[in-house]
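User: structure tokens for this one?
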Amino acid sequence: MKLLQTPHMPSGLPMLEPELTALLDQQHHILSARIHAESGFMPFDRWMHECLYAPGYGYYTGGSTKFGSTSPQGDFTTAPELTPLFGQTVALQIQQVLQQLGSVNILEFGAGTGAWAKSIIPALADLGIEANYAILELSPDLQQRQQHTLAEFGSQVQWLQQLPQDFVGCVIANEVLDAMPVHVVQRADDGSILEVGVTLVDPATATGPLVSPFQWAAKPAAPELAAIAEERLPNIPGYRTEINLQAEAWVKGAGQWLQRGAILLFDYGFPRHEYYHGQRAEGTLMCHFRHYAHAEALLYPGLQDITAHVDFTAMADAALEGGLDVLGYTAQGRFLLNSGLAQRLGHAPDSQDPEATARWAHTVGAAQKLLSEAEMGELFKVLALGKDIDPPLIGFFNGDRRDRL
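Assistant:
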């Protein structure tokens, strides 16, 4: 095992209150025991799974998840939480899919606070569709929040405990792939492939104050992972990046349970030639804590979100292997414009109504964030997959980038 760098405390990262410090100490103890049980080395995909999904203390399963654009306790903001305009616009694309299928079924993965469903369901009702809306949510805490948010829709919304079988309808997922645990790999000085993981700091050899009892380490990658990395990574010594085999398996597996329909995946990422660019030599791992973004994934385990950008080429390849069609791929801004976001903004209200003017200005500001290339418009992409759906889908009518995957 090769020891790598120890984490540092990023300047500006919010400090923890005493009660969270006590919780963090407990999680350090649990994770240290897990690393001991794995002979002192935990591959990063296991670390990320433990930090996000371990029952009782994971970020998504232990009640730590924070959404919100204004609260100082929020960790990050997603497009559905930013404005109902996002869901209202996506509803037009969902309508096209459902009308082709003669279905009213929608399945959302990882529904956050329920904000997306709350905007989509009435927007579809305005289009003449009374949707059957199902949610598959891994987080008990978030499921409770969703049930509160969506109580007005009664039995129209249901929560699933497992993947459906022979689903016919439209599937949607916003920022789900990026939260799936990733393998971290690195090209060694001799050109071989290492798998990067987590070990424990030896206090006897530590220099300076420790900000975490955990340290990066690396071992020779298993043959299967090494072969995949060898194909994707540039031949640059020290180059480190991520490979999301779990997300690839999830997409491929969708070909088994989707009988007919479309899957709309919204997430941030790149096609492969951009993802594994030589200048992106430190990967894409990103953590969020109270709206502070940083790359130290070994800090605050269970209390901060950990994500990695999506290799959309890998997702498209996995879809084809699973028997799905790749129906479209474009930037989120282009998708929303194709789906009529600009028309939904309408005109500025009468200036004599200050409250209406303020609401409209807020909506315009949110729309600009969704569309701007400097915000969510370009970094976020939309990938459409499906079975028995006739293209073109309206969201990809202009600016389809499937030829870049």
